[in-house]
Amino acid sequence: MRVRILTLVLLAGMGYLIWNLYHIQVISGEEYSSRMISQSTTSVLLPPARGVIVDRNGVALADNKASIDIDLYLNVLVGNYLKSKKGKRPLTLVPGSSTRKMTDVAKIVDDTTRDAVQALGFDMGNVTSRDILRHYDQKPNVPLRIARNLDFATLSRIAEHNVNVPGLEETARPVRNYDYGAFAAHILGNVGKVEDVPTDASYVPDVIGKDGIEKSMDEYLQGVPGAKILRKNSVGYIMGVDAIKEPLSGGTVYLSIDARIQMIAEQEMRSVGRGACVVMDPTNGDILAMVSVPNFDPNTYSSELGRMVNDATHPLFNRAIGGYPVGSEFKVVTAMAAMKNPQAKFGPNTTINSPAAVWMAGRWWKDWDNNPGEGDITLKTALQWSTNTFFYQLGVRTGIKSIQDMAALCGMGRKLLVDEDGNEIIRGEVPGVIPGPDYFEAENKKKLEAWKNWNKANPKAKKPYPALERWSDGHTANTSIGQGFVKISPLQLATTMSAIANGGTVYYPRLVLHVSDIPDSVEGDEKEYPVRKLADLGVTAEQLNAVRQGLRAVVAEGTGRKAGISDFQVAGKTGTAQFWTVINGVRSKDYKTWFNGYGPFDKPRYVVTILVEGGTSGGGTCGPIASRIFKRLAELEKGTSMDMPYLSSAVGNFLGVKADVIDASSADDTPAATPETPSAAPEFSQPSLPAGGDNRGKPNDMQRRTRGR
Amino acid sequence: MNPVTKILRLNWFLFTLMAALTVGGIFFIKSATSYSDMPGVHPLVHQQEMWALAGLAAFLFFAWVDYEILLRFALPIFILSVLSLVAVLVFGETINGATSWVRIGRFILQPAEPSKIGFILGMTWMLLVLGDYKKKLWFFIVSGIMAMLPAFLIYKQPDLGTALVFFPMTFIIMWAAGIPKRYLLLLVLMVGAGFAFAYFIVYKALWDGTVKDLAPAAERAAFMVSGRQDSLPEEQKLKLAPPANPKKRDPAPVAEEQDPAKKKKGVILKPYQLDRIKTFFNPDLDPLGAGWNIRQSLNTIGSGGFKGKGYVNEYGYLPKNIAYNDFIFAVIGEEVGFVGCTLFILCQGALIMGILYVAGRSKDTGGMLICLGFAALLTAHFFQNVGMTINALPITGIPLPFTSYGGSFLVTCMAGLGLVQSVWIHRKNF
After folding, report:
1. Do B37 and A78 touch (CB under 8 A)?
2. What is the pLDDT of residues A394-429, one digit of tens each?
3. How many domains does the structure of chain A reveal?
């Protein structure tokens, strides 16, 4: 009887258990399964390959190469070690803990890989046993990279020896590669590690663009990460792959650059210590080459960063878009402004008497030194010989407002490398300055503000009222020849010259042609950067022709003769801006010398703008460089093939910079400098840069003198 | 009589079930340990195989020996069991905070398990010897003390789950022996009061969503329950008690209780025990802490679904150091699903019912009591273990008969079944 009761109770209990199980396993089984899956899978992001940057013909300038790394799968190593040692595991303390114990992975790594590592002869580098322990403690299922970017010798040894240590594996990882080294470095920029990782970021790429196109086009270059859904158990051991979504590599950025022309410009500009060169297609504003020296090799950017930051020649600075005094290069703007302004009563054939010096705004304004004077000359001659007295008078006749307007039409005083929405294509472009009354007003306001703030901060000490400046004809005259406060970038000069060459249309310089779609992505990321017109110069063909004839005369028989070549006719303008800079505490002469020209004269295809810092004169220093570039461009058009070597970093220097000695002995090398002239006028506020006359290479000076006499 | 012919007369139904459960257990232990990197886990399967062989030897021995001879030595056996429990407390090894093991040579034994057989024999012996006085209250008290002695020693290890198993064994043996119902009612009331204590005081008063931060509350509860009962007599006052002063709390005072309910439940509940009670009533309260085991167990079993995921197909999400022993049923649930679980439950139930059948067929009261006591032991383990994995009972960490990993318990179970077989074999006088 009692046994039967017990049996019934037992049956009831079993029924209860089965009923419960039915609920859990059959009715709620799905829910528990999904809970199980959600906690037993992990997704691993697969980084995409970074998009490629190519030139206008599809030549890769920045792509990816495989870096072979050695990874240690610590969990595999430990598992095999324990198997071979029948489960006996060495123990050690967790780094940083005095009580918590863990498997002594460092010992296991040492025991299992020592022979292999020695046989292969690669260095474990700075991976310490502490690193290994910490890594295993924190992320046991993430492989530990013990060697990266193995050289070929090690790789072939690995292939030969066929090291069979399970858990020691070589992995190919894409790294950014700049095919030609220090080539278009300021355009391409560089990539680097992500520094400020947003805390909510679901995906952090290996590298992001830090500068240049790499930075501005980063969103297109990044690509779309893929993912692997991995099944793991409670201790994180990966047991299989559930699903995989391949990453989509980034889009291709097509630059307007022509790699061959860029290589020509890079190679020719290496001869100078500091400088920049822009080669532009005048028909549409495409930048064919843009060089700034000294430069850097983006491949070794991070290792050389320390040196570059301390380099006084600033290799990281992109001189092609920096602001400089342009000297006589500005004269074409003055000339066009004068012809456009009817009040100036100036035409292609108008003559202006240009003596050795003119009296204006209360002082004498000299032409370049010892110049006996030109007499009544037209624009063509004035450009040809870069006659300062001509342009002083012309500038005052035209008025600063017209000059400023024309400069603005030419793209000066504004950033040009921007897309339709105003986003910079390359970081760090200097808008530049075309001074005028408005500029002085703003400057004065700043000075007063600073003075007030200083007085507020130092109530006891009194600072004298700041010297405020007022615009005068003297300033206008100075601006007319590109001296004084004028700041213009090589790129802006190239843009101006392109407009003159193509008949008066100012185009935005174009650096990026288009960005291609990310392959296989559903949503198109394609973007076109069309040719964009900035302005029309608004001068007649006849007027423009006068300027062009003048520019042709410069190269044919004027100051820029050295820029000429035999293949086609080159036109252009030389310039030498007098500039003093403080180098190592010594005020030193550091002239900015220029050549800005185009060719062929009748059917312009190339605009070449060259800046050399610390040069002697525009014609003497930049002319030969321009000539070589034009020559090689002509050869290129004829189909001459050219080498594309890997370039090392161009190192900067201060050759050509001289401590400030203005004496007769250096007069031979020194272009016409007239520092005493402006300073002799007390009522005339001294510009930050001494006003100066034009300048020519020594041979031209000689010829000029002869001719003048 | 020839030992072989004698052994061949054993109850083959029970033997088959035992063999099936043991062999199945070994397979599931293998599966449960296949992904673990715990040191010394992989050899567990081989150890279990060795223990199974040792258990088989014990089984054959106890089946062959006439249980009446054993009953004659029941008192010394019982005393030996109690002494072994004392020895554990003195010389034992502490693993996972419990001093439950003694090391003898290469082997680590858990004397609490064989002591259950010793207790069954001892209890049976006493009921047989002093059977005439079974209606007396003093007899009930003496036999109660006899049950309390090993239970208390095991509880001191501490191993509350194993200690609690003595109560159903005592109850069933007493009930079968004809102890007056009023006394037994007292036993039932003790258990009921213990449950009420757990639910109303520990869970409702302290955990029922009103206390957000669980750890200090757990400490306070432990203090209230264990520390100053005399000054805090009522439930209401417990809630208003000032925060515990840790210095006053230690050392935990030994129980000297008037309230039998609290005595039954274990007066000094450790914080982890409170946590287990709490998570039993609401597994989602603290999913990463105390609720982890039960949640993972439910996920594992539930994900098995109707047919299961197949052998060696688990993610190892069960706590890896208990998956192969206390939570082996969860592994079974995952791998063979509802079908396999039902089959397993039926096997376990059939085994117990087979023992009950043997009890009914035994030639004397002694044999019957031994069988019922052992059936109660298996039933308690079986229901408690399966119940906790499916959240029908609180977690107490006692193994599943024949199937869980654990040498001492496996040998104990097989020896116990050997006793039952002996009752079966010797049901007729030869």
Report:
1. yes
2. 999 999 999 999 999 999 999 999 988 888 899 889
3. 3
Same domain, A560 and A500: yes
Select from A197, A220, A251 the last residue of a domain: A251
Cα–Cα dist B226/B232, whole Å: 11
A348 in any annotated domain: yes
8 Å CB contact of B333 and A25: yes
A315 in the same domain as A230: no
Rounded to the nearest angstrom, the minimum Cα separation between A72 and chain B is: 18
More confident residue, B105 or B224: B105
Residue B185 has pLDDT above 70, yes or no: yes
**Do A606 and A659 fall into the same domain?**
yes
Of A6, A17, A29, the CB nearest to B303: A29
Q: What are phi and psi of A487, to 5 degrees?
A: -135, 115
Same domain, A298 and A221: no
| Sequence-distant (≥ 6) Cβ neighbours of residue A427 within 8 angstroms | A189, A211, A212, A215, A216
Burial class of residue A123, CB neighbours in 10 A (0-12, 13-18, 19+): exposed
- List the single range of A78-82, B14-18, B259-263, B389-393 with lowest mean pLDDT: B259-263
> A234: nearest CA in chain B?
B317
CA-based nearest distance A227→chain B, Å? 21
Give me the helix-helix angle, B328-361 and B365-389, nearest 10°.
160
* pLDDT tens string A542-561: 999 999 999 999 999 888 99
For residue A230, which phi and psi values (nearest 5 degrees)? -110, 145
Q: Residues B352, B353, B354, B357: is their CA dihedral positive or negative?
A: positive
Helix (H, G, I), strand (E, B) or coil at B274: helix
- The alpha carbon of residue B296 is apart from the nearest alpha carbon of chain A, in Å, by 8
Res. A605: pLDDT tops 90: yes
| The predicted structure's pLDDT at residue B315 | 52
Tens-place pLDDT, residues A187-205? 999 888 777 665 555 566 7
pLDDT of residue B23: 93
DSSP 8-state symbol, A298: G
Do A105 and A155 belong together in one domain? yes
pLDDT tens digits, B96-137: 667 788 887 777 888 889 999 999 999 999 988 887 888 888
Residues A52 and A89: beta-carbon distance below 8 Å: no
Work out whether strand A571-577 and strand A592-599 pair parallel, antiparallel, or are unpaired.
antiparallel
d(C-alpha A123, C-alpha B354), whole Å:
70
In this complex, which of A7, A30, A89 lies closest to B353 when CB atoms are compared?
A: A7
Q: What is the mean pLDDT of residues B168-192?
A: 85
User: Cβ B298–A32 below 8 Å, yes or no?
Assistant: yes
Q: Is residue A54 domain-shared with residue A143, that is, in the same domain? A: no
End-of-domain residue from the set A235, A251, A267? A251
**A199: domain range?**
41-63+173-251
Cβ within 8 Å, pair A10-B302: no
Q: How far is A32 from chain B (nearest CA, A)?
A: 5
Give the side-chain half-sphere CA count within 13 A for A445: 6
User: Is residue B215 scored above 70 in pLDDT?
Assistant: no
Asked if B301 lies within 8 A of A78 by C-beta distance, the reply is no
